[in-house]
Amino acid sequence: MTVGADFEAILNAIPVPIIVKDEQFRFSFLNEAACALVGRRPGDLIGCTDYDIHPTAEADRIREMDKRVLCTGEEVSIEAEIVVTGGELRTLLTRTCRAELTRGNTSENVIVATILDFTERRRAESELHASEEHYRSLVELHPQVPWTADPSGQVLEIGPRWENTGFAPNEALGEGWAKATHPDDLDPVQQAWAKSLETGEPLDIEFRLAAAEGGYSWYRSRAATRRAEDGSILRWYGTVENIDDRRKALEAAKESEARFRAIADDAPVMIWVTGEDGADDYHSRLWLETTGQTAEQAAGKGWLNAVHPEDRNAVERAFYQAFERRKSVRMEYRLKRAGGGSAWVIDIGQPRFATDGKFLGFVGIALDITERRNAEQERLLAQKQIHHMARHDALTGLPNRQFLREEFERLSDQIAAGTRIAILCLDLDGFKAVNDAYGRATGDLLLRRVAERLQNCLRQSDILCRLGGDEFVVLRVGINSNAEARLLAQQLIDVIEAPYELAGTHVDLGVIVGLAAAPKGDQPVDELIKAADVALDRAKSGGRGTYVQYEPEMDAHLQAVQQMRVSLRQALANGDLEVHYQPLVDLHTGKITTFEALARWPHPERDQVSPAEFIPVAEETGLIGSLGEWILRQACTEALKWPPHVSVAVNLSPLQFRNQGLAATVGDILEETGLEASRLQLEITESVLLDDCDGNLQILKAIRRLGVKIAIDDFGTGFSSLGYLRTFPFDKIKVDRSFITDLPDGRESLAIVRAVAAIGRSLGIVTTVEGVERQRQFDVIKAEGFDEAQGYLIARPLPAEQATKLAHSAHVETSTTERG
């Protein structure tokens, strides 16, 4: 036996538990009230019997009653005290009857049980026997204002807290309570009270009462009857509860909603919100302007009328599937424009839940991607762009290490037997001098010219990659001898060392090459690169124009790492490391909001050791935990010297999350240094959420509970950065510097940063841009509504003493001399 959807909805709306069983005494339907009573979901109960949810003795009793009802057709009512979900003892009256369902020529008997909660009634009857003195004491001690009235509505007693209205309790007797009621509320209150007196229905109304200190406060009055056995009303019992704070909170919530609507209407993306029933009840101004709909036309399901007819069914199906599952939804479709034509949008919706887990509906944003869709292939654009960005260098467009790994695996099976694989690592000599002398823009142009020359001299089957900085890698398969690899190295040197003309400037550049060759499938590509790097280090002693082929005896990598580990451990123990601080500036006020703590190692023999060199060693050798804890303690201690509105940001390595006590360590350092948790920001990269996501997520939540703020760094460089925003409620987004390098001219970069700024505003997340080195970049991100900026244009990382002086200055001016 199944219950129709409409009838099921009606039964679910009935607050009385209703249970239907078939002739085999199996549950075939339970309404929501029945499921709540037993503390189980419908899907867990359908097809089960009472023996699956009750002790055997109780199930036996119910089964005997059901058999009697099914056999005789008589209705059976049994009242019993039963422990319900949560361990509460309730007095329940179960009425069980038989019903016959007919379908065509067949009929089926079912058992229908309704359960009435008589707990309160029996309790009230018991209280009839309590003494009046006991009742009066309860009235006097009640934190609310209890009251009683006779059947005609005349107040007989009222609690002493009535005097909070400025009137004595005896003044409220009879109908005297009306004197304390706000004039505008008196008539509605009297009408509601009169209706309850006439019908015997409970009273529940909110109104204003006078306050002893002046003015009025909001109260809620509820009342119910006590009846005799013949049903006549013996007395009314009620309470008056002060709900002024709740009403003010409600008004504040309405004001907050109004602010949200105002902010949403200014956002450069279309924002929409639905209620728990799935009907849209809000669309931002940009939606209405784009589609030409009014708010009334877009409400409910009206927004579907703005979807292109060819996309409408798919969009509606995708949304309602997501709504039923209460899962996020992402759709790409066309909207009909108000002035004709259509606009392509990416529409992303997320379910909303209250703090108690109640489903509230969906909220979503729709971004106009018409230009991008027209410029590239339709639905593959976003995936291709992400795939390309993850495998290519943003500056030169060359493949990166990830691309090289994947292609190496693909090509390995195609290499002819008996041939070899060659890896050549190229390090430009003199590039830093050019970059420092002529600026970042000229340096970037030089790197692109080098990439062009290399591409033009290589075979189509060769793979050329940029691994970062001024380091390039060439992979050639199918070579027949080591001599052929060495010849290629010399060719690359000759090509790169030819003079360059850059914007009228004559530039000379050298190159050093390390190469490694191996038989097919002999070594992974990372090992070949490592071997070529070892040869490259050896070649550097020969100066520019030198190439060296790797030989096994050259491999001193492990020894170098060991020496670095020993030196780093000693530097940590001796306090030889330093922490410098680079400021983040509020784009609206010009004031410093935060300093990012950055480790520095002034080595007695090597001058400054780059963090890019010693941080990986710390991670590889297990020192990152001690190093990270030391940096955090130093940063928190130094932050105490700054104004209280200035925070400190500390980077966490993904490897630090292997320590399950990381959150406790953070808490201990905060307690030890005395820094307020809200002034500490911890920055993580997306790899924290990729590696052991569940465990790391629990550590992040534990840190967040301390009051510490969490920022996601290098945002936009990974595969699923948007997904992380719903995985964890980040306080700050730091946009990776690669997205602003070509601003303001780069259209794609501008579209991306504009969308990130809008997402940050709609989600209430602070947005920061790092790597700001030019005034034009600064002007663009400020205009797009970002909250903070960081980079050399503002200030380089500073020693602690200089950072403290800067922290106490009124604000920071951007540098007049731009880099690049």
UniProtKB/TrEMBL annotation:
Q: Where is the PAS domain?
A: 3-73, 165-200, 256-326
What keywords would UniProt list here?
Plasmid
The record ties this protein, via InterPro entries, to: Biofilm_reg_signaling, EAL_dom, EAL_sf, GGDEF_dom, Nucleotide_cyclase, PAC, PAS, PAS-assoc_C
User: In this protein, which residues make up the domain named GGDEF?
Assistant: 419-552
* SUPFAM superfamilies, sorted: EAL domain-like (SSF141868), Nucleotide cyclase (SSF55073), PYP-like sensor domain (PAS domain) (SSF55785)
Pfam families registered for this protein in UniProt: EAL, GGDEF, PAS_3, PAS_4
Question: Which superkingdom does the taxonomy of this entry point to?
Answer: Bacteria
Where does the EAL domain lie?
561-811
| Domain PAC: from-to ranges | 203-255, 329-381
Q: Give the CDD domains listed for this entry.
A: EAL (cd01948), GGDEF (cd01949), PAS (cd00130)
* PROSITE patterns in the record: EAL, GGDEF, PAC, PAS
- NCBIfam families from the UniProt entry: GGDEF, sensory_box
Record's protein name = Sensory box/GGDEF family protein
Q: Which organism is it from?
A: Sinorhizobium fredii (strain NBRC 101917 / NGR234)
